[in-house]
Amino acid sequence: IENGLDGIEGRYTYNKTSYKGTKTVEEIETEVRERYGNRLYISGGSDYHGSKKGTRDTREIGEAGIKVKELFGIFSQEMIYGKKDH
User: How far is Cα 17 from Cα 43, in angstroms, rounded to an integer?
Assistant: First the structure.
């Protein structure tokens, strides 16, 4: 954040972290939110990088933790107020 970061992909549809500590995903996210408040967007990635045609088990928006309402909220704030103050 101190270097201009607006957001981070921090939610996944599977456990892909290399973190070896004892905190749960929920504990880590709570700590990040307490530390950075509303200065950081936490989004989720689908990890799907191609056409859905012929693909089984595709991912959808919201599956990795970010809801459509949150997504539109982020872009609405940006369009109305410009870039967030850090």
Answer: 15
In terms of C-beta density within 10 A (0-12 exposed, 13-18 middle, 19 or more buried), how is residue 44 classed? buried
Among the listed residues 50, 54, 51, 44, the one whose alpha carbon sits nearest the alpha carbon of residue 16: 44
CA dist 6 to 2, 58, 74, Å?
A: 10, 27, 11
pTM of the entire structure? 0.46
Other CB atoms within 10 Å distance of the CB of residue 36 = 15
The pLDDT tens digits of the residues spanning 4-29 come to: 777 666 666 556 566 778 888 788 87
